[in-house]
Structures are given as structure tokens and as C-alpha cells.
Design brief:
- By secondary structure, the chain is an all-alpha fold.
- It is built from 15 helices and no strands.
- The two termini are about 45 Å apart.
- Its main location: membrane.
- InterPro entries: SCL35B1-4/HUT1 (IPR013657).
- Keywords: Membrane, Signal, Transmembrane, Transmembrane helix, Transport.
Amino acid sequence: MAVHCGSAVMLVIVLVAAVWIHASHAALKNPAPIGPVGPAAGADAKAAQADWTDFWLVRLTLNILGYGSVCLPAWLIIRYVKRSGYLERGGENGHSCMFKTIRVCVAGNEEKASIEEGGIKGKVPEPPKHNRALVLVSCVVGLQGSYLTWGVLQERIMKHEYGKDESNPGEKFANSQFLVFMNRILAFTAAGLIILATRQPRHTAPLYRYSYCSLSNVMSSWCQYEALKFVSFPTQVLAKASKIIPVMLMGKVVSGKSFEYFEYVTAAMISAGVTMFLLSQGKEATGPTTETTFSGVIILIGYMMFDSFTSNWQAELYKQYNMSSMQMMFGVNLFSCVFTSWSLVSQGGFTYGMGFMLNYPTFMFHVLLLSLCSATGQLFIFYTISQFGAVVFVIIMTTRSGLAIFLSCLIYGHPVTVVGVLGVLIVFAALFLRVFLQQRKKAQKAREAKQTELSNGNKV
């Protein structure tokens, strides 16, 4: 990864330049409307009500039914295999392809992978010290470029019309699940190629255990795209920043974690900042906009809950099985592709998405770039954490969130009040304060451990 880091960064820079030029041109040519104004907005509202499936709760229900049609049969099969003792009675069939497949899916490999075999720690060689600064800069450019571009494309796809001109009102893309599938299939392919090309630890986790966080990951991504139909991109970014709160709550439920007082204080600061920003937006909203904003907030709450479960479940898998980050990426995206593809087939989503691509080549270009940025961003996430730790990664991504809000307001013309700016500053001040206090706590624990070790040595 270190060898090809420069090439990847150059690719990201080229993609960023292309998207910025296109997005800026589109924003100047078709500026985003603020609130429903005039007869065109009324026509759009009437068209939105033409199909009962346009209501987000109906789409969510259909998606859940599609995922359930996969999960329920799989759950029954896994339950039968475990209760019937099929794996224990393998006998002569223990070397057959079907038996091995079922064992990997249901029970995994019995032998645990050790860190020496290439577990989480030490799975990526550390670059020479004189290259670490260059590698860090490459990671910053890769993460910022990938996810800032991804954010601009996400807003462009979900909130603006394709084919709009003086004689044509244009058409908005409506199927969020299709975008989730496109992102996941490319990430799945990238992870698979890297696993084939590099040395990986022995995989021991039952494959079905990835399905839990995969399903929650798909749901959180769907909520993320769907929310942009109802709230502004800056609002979505701030809501994502405040997901620390549900992550803490889910950590207590899933892992029984305990938290320090400063973590609760910074969580409260984040809540206050997000509330100030949302209220500043709400004062400018009237009529139907207020109602749709309420729907967007509900969807964002769903996003935060699903995303917090995903991170906590993945942490538990890492702790139990010591798989590599690429194996995690491959397993999660494998089930994500299965869930979304089956649901899209049952709802006709592939026909709609492919038809939209053929009708609007610009949309096809945007979706391909969106998927490429998502997959590239995931690779940079894993590499940055492995080389520089979670703290450096959090600082980079927190800075990215602030830049994303600024660029969205600059390109798409979102209004921001003084109260809203103050709320944004409070949120990011709380995030940086949280990182600083966590680092100081770790350093203090390290000093205490060293002092204890020295005192025990003196006693001996």
C-alpha cells in the first residue's frame, strides 16, 4: 500500500479536479432552490405524490421486506445446521466442497489466527521514519480528496435535477438503494483483489456474523442518501458528527462499556451545537419545508443508530477473531451486495437505475465517481489507522467534516446564520476537545503503568 500510495493520491487529485469543475459549473447553471417557490415547485410536489412508493417510510418498509426475504431463510438454515449436528457428523463428507462451504459460513475455522500470523496488529509494515511525513500527507490528501468529492457528488446526485434546461424541468434520482449497491460492489471487488494480492491472516470468523453489521451498514447508508431529500448536506454532516452519542449508548448495550465524565460533557456540547444549527435552519423554513425537515431528522436518527451498531459490532468481531481490515471490508461488502441486489431485483430497482444511467450519461459519470471515491476512501481509512492510529484518523476526518460544510455552502449556496455558524463551531470544538482529553488520559495511564512497573522492580 505504501508503494502505491503516491499513485492513489494522484488518482484522487484528478478525480477531485474533474468533480469540482463539473459541480461548480452545474451549481452556477442550475443553482439549488431554497424552499418551494412558484408553480414549478408545486408541480414537483404534485409529481412526488403521484406514486405511493415515493413516501420514504414505504420505501424503507419495502427494503426491509427485501432484506428479510434473504435473512429469514438463511437464519432457518443456520439454525438447522447447528441443531442437527451436521458439522459434527461430517465424517467422510468433511472434505467435500459443500461441507467446507457450510462450515465456513456457519462455524468458521476452528483454529484462531494469531497476531504473529498477520492479525490486526502488525498487518501493515511501518514505513521508514524519513518517509512517514510523506505517507501522512498522502493519507491526508487521499482521505480529504476522496470524501470531500464523495460529499459533493452525493449532494449533486440526490438534490439536483438531471436533464434540466429551459424547456425541460429535469428529473431527480429517487432510488437511494441503487447508490448503496454501486458503492458496495466496487468496495467488495477492491477488497477481494487486495486479499488475493497480499498476505492475510488465517480467517476464522463464521461468515454469517458479518451479516449483522452489513445489514446495519446498508441501512445507515440508505438513511444517509435518503435524508438528503429532506435536509441540507451541512445538516447531515453535523448529524453524522453527533453520532458519538448513539455510539456511546450502543457501546453500553452491545459491549457494556463505561465512559468518562468528559465524554458525556463533550457529547452534550455536540448535541447543543447540532440543535443550534438545526433551529437556525428551521427559522428560515416555512410550510412544507418544515415537515420534510422533520422527516429528514427522523431518517438521520435512524442513520446514527444503525451506524453506531455497525462500529460496535465490528469492534467485537475484531476482538474475537483478529481478522485483517481487508477481510472485514470484504465480508461486510459481500453481504451488502447480496442484501441490496436481492432487494433491488424484487423492487425493479436495477431497471430504474440502469434506465436512469442510459437516459442521463452525466448521472452515470457521477455514480461511477461516487463509487470509486467510496472504495478509495475505505482503503485510505484502513491504511491511515494502521499506520498512524485512530486519533490521527479522527482529527483528519473531523477537519474533513468542517471543510465539507464550507464547500457545500460555497458550491450549492446554502444559507447559514450566525447562530448556525456558532453551532458548527461548538460541535467541532467538542470533537477536538474530546480527542485531546482522550489522548491525555492514555498518556496518564501509560505514565502510571510505568511508575508501577518501576516501583515493583525496586521492591524486588
